[in-house]
Every structure is written in C-alpha cells, then in structure tokens.
Fold Delta-aminolevulinic acid dehydratase.
Amino acid sequence: MHVRFPQHRPRRLRASKLIRDAVAETSLDPSDFIYPIFVKPSGEKEQIPSMPGQYRWPVGDELTRHVEEALALGVNKVILFGVVPDELKDSAGSPGYDPHGVVPNAIRLLKQTFGDKLLVFADVCLCEYTDHGHCGIVRERRGRWYVDNDETIKLYAKEAVTYADAGADFVAPSGMMDGQVAEIRKALDAHGFHDVGIMAYSAKYASAFYGPFRVAAASAPKFGDRRTYQMDPRNAYEAVKEVMLDLEEGADIVMVKPALAYLDVIRLVKTHYPWAPLAAYNVSGEYSMVKAAASLGYVDERIVTLEILTAIKRAGAQLILTYHALEAARWLKEGVPF
C-alpha cells in the first residue's frame, strides 16, 4: 500500500532557501570551470564582436592580469586557442606547431607566472592555422576534396609535443580524426611527456552553435563544411563508440561538445563510463545567445547562465568549458539564485 498526500508533501523540502540548499542534488563551483581564452601574438586586446565580453588577448601583461583575475575568483583552469594573422597561415597549419608560436609562448608565460596554481589545457587542431580553414591536410581525389586523416594526426602529434614542451598540463585534440588520441599519446610518451594528459574532444558534433567561435578564431572553412569528420547531430549512441575508442587509445578526460543541446549525450556517456572524467563544452553559440537575449531584456543572464551550467553538471559533466566562467564565478560568490 502506497502512502500519498497528505502524508507525503514534497513541498516541505522547498519551503525555504536554506532547506533547498540542504537537499540540493547538484552543486556548482568555480573549480568546475575551464575558461577558454583566445590568444594572439601581440598588440592590444581586441573585443570579439560575435561574443560580447570576450577578447583576443596578446601574449603579455594583459593576459597574465586577466588570468590572475580568474584565479582570484576560483577559476584555476584555462584552455588556450591561438589566433594568427592570415599571412602566417598555410595549407599545413604550421603556425600551430611552431615552438615559438602564439600558443607555446602563452603557455610558457602562464606557467612561469602562475606555476601549479593554474592548470593549462591547449587545444590541438589546425583550423586556426590553415589557409583553408579545415582541421587538417586537404587532398583531392577523383575531383573531390577530403581531409587526409592519417597525415593530419601526425601533425596533431607534433603540435601536442610542442605544447607539452612549452609546459601544458593537458593537450586537447579537437579535430575528430580517427586515431588522433593514440598518435598523440605515442608521441608524448616517446618524448618523455608521460605525465602530460589528454582531454579528448571525443564526441564533437558538426554543430551550428560554433559560429561565434569561428569569427573569434578566424577559423571558418573557406569551402565545404566539417560534416565528414565531426559527428552527425542526429546520433547519440555513436558518441558512446567514439568515447570508447578514445578511452582505449589513452584519453584521460573525454568531452561532449556542444553541451546544452546534447545533455542527453552527456548523460548517456556518463552512464556508460561512470569512471571516466567527463567534460562538456558550453560553446560560443550557447554563450552568445544568452548574451543577446539578456541585452534585450528577455532573460535574466545571471539566473539563466547558472541554470544552464547546473544542468550541464547535473547531466554528468564534471568539468565545464564555458566563456561565462568568470561571470558565473562572481555570481556563485553572491549565492545560487534558485
């Protein structure tokens, strides 16, 4: 026999903020966030028009002051994306694995300045550095272009070793090439970087939510799209296979990207691999939509952002890459508004 109302009154546990906080199933903390930062070789910081509140930071004092601000808020993890002038780009994306390139220089500066207080992740891909905007080496076969998977992952490995040598704690391959994690792990180990971790973009979908990022990093493809290597948005169980392969190849952390439209995938991956550290990327389009709606007064940015980030963590992500990291950290210090 089931006991129901009035014996059971679930509203008792919602009666006050203190009670709701006491029984909350999910908690959000600034240490959950990985803050994406765009770095450029020199000059002044530039506002990114497609991403209000975000900048391209020159490698120097402005960058270190910005990261110092993040650390003061409890955000102690960053991931770096390089932005270079068009004249430096080439068909092989060589600025991405130049030991004196923008990302290695930024890594060295941040590790020299902050040491073990800051965990530095470095995105490993070539789209920011190729003159065609694709994530690898482009070939032609029977009148059609394609990205050469096996040649591309050799360059990813070279890029990863370059970032590890500069001091990165984790490298983060994002190109969705088959075998990229195994190739990178082999190269890192061969160069003695056994302790450098790999955070793999294991389930990265061919999503329209990346638009503002491609403006920020000047990385939009000049022709075609990325649907032959990024995942089909219609598929969920394929993500489980991709994560399985990356874990078998040596990934230390796996990721689902984007986050908000793929909460079901986050949950699915976490259910299948509860022991594997899982990250989710709250991507540029998700960020910019909230900013745009808030600027028009349609939503309360603080409450909506914290609700979204809580949902991502509730779905199963332990780490959240988000451009809202600093703002969210400030809001959390004021108290969760639920």
About this structure: The first strand starts at residue 33 and ends at 40. The domain at 26-334 is CATH 3.20.20.70 (TIM Barrel). The CA atoms of residues 69 and 326 lie 8 Å apart.
